[in-house]
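Hi there,

I know you've been waiting on this one. I reran it after we fixed the sequence typo, so this is the corrected version. Both the input and the resulting structure follow.
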Amino acid sequence: MRNLILSLATILLFNCCQHKNNNNESVTKGITKIAFGSCSHQQDSVQLWPEITAENPDIMVLTGDNIYGDTQDMAKLKKMYDLQKNRASYQQLLKKTKVIGVWDDHDYGVNDGGKHYTNKDSSKYLMLDFFDVPINDPVRNRQGVYSSHTLNNGDHSVKIILLDTRYFRDTLKIDTTGKSRYIINEHGDILGEEQWKWLENELKNSTADVNIIGSSIQVLAEEQIFEKWANFPVARKKLLGLINDINPKNTVIISGDRHIAEISSIMLDNLDYPLYDFTSSGLTHTWAEPWAEQNRYRIGKLINEKNYGIININWEDSSMTFEVKGNDQETYYQLKVPIKL
């Protein structure tokens, strides 16, 4: 696979009939495989990198909490990133697969953090170095870490848009009454003005057959009491409104943070397909004990196992298959959906 840095996107090009990744293993033209996951503690001795490497994905997307830092000390944060990056099993993944990503709160530097975190710019460059983002990439010269990337497979393409839900996010206050974990910020924002403009432009100008929007926190789920877009209802409405009005082809949301896996789905007025939010979280740890959690948009079951997500796009039969997988590449849940090409 060959990396070309073009404008705001990283373009991953495939040969006309098949391409070979860095270890010279052939990858068929008819399938694009995207792996993703979140919440990987750098101190955990058992991680899912070998399983993900064995999947031989075309790309791996990390959607946040890629380390657990929670510190104002950038020297300590760098040591945590270095520990994770230098892990032998992670290095094996890097040899075979391009890894891209975005942060959530713990790798940002502060639990539940937002725009007022004082070390967010220093933290940003540590994150970009972790992902080997080139020094001349446009993301290094703007605020925040949002980015877009395109995978080409023959005549088809996938656009991956990674949102920064921390750098610009307004404050989320703890609910001290005990009725909920957080107080809903009725008028607060998540993305900030410049990122909103950028996102609108990325969606409007997308020529991709499949568009994947990566958010560190869940977009669709409303009932769960933890971090989510629903804690900022104006921002959530704006995001869904953008997707509805622009109507990019075959759009899917991927998310993390929750230490569980689930797939949520809603219908938007202007879309002729369901909008899915595929949550994969808990590369190293999940809930100590499962509990019944309501999600009116959930399809299938909630998975309380260490997991990673796989999206297999089959261009020949015009379908996507969502897979929740874990130890020894065991499949915990699978959902196949049609796409329109």
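Quick highlight: Confidence is low (pLDDT under 50) at residues 1-27.

Best,
R. S.
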